Amino acid sequence: MDAPELDRELAEWAGALCALLGERGAGTADQASREAAARARTLLLAGHADRAELRAAFEELDEALRRAGDARGLRGRSRSHAASPSPAPPGLRRVIKVARCPGALPCARREPAPDLRLPPKCAVHGVRMHRESLRGTP
To answer: Which of 8, 16, 39, 57 to pair with 27, CA 20 to 30 A apart?
Structure first.
């Protein structure tokens, strides 16, 4: 697996961790899941963790969740692959406002961020996500 592909995979795992930690009544009910989630979060916050170490921590959390009875595991929480909206009418460019990860190692998570609402808090970093505009093709 080459570096860009691995980085994309790690960003997806990080987005799934953020979604897990942000869930109400978070799905980390058992001790092994809580410890694995804390380890993965600590590695992400450090910002200088080895890619293999990060990947191993995410896989450990995924397995811990599945052993605890959560069939989704970690990857089943990722919201970064939501279906895109219908195409804009001809000649118009769609602008979608989203909140993105504020971390040094940004994850793949994107959340809707309309103008009248504050962006959600990142469950990994504990600060509000950054707002940005995504522009579709005309």
So the answer is: 8
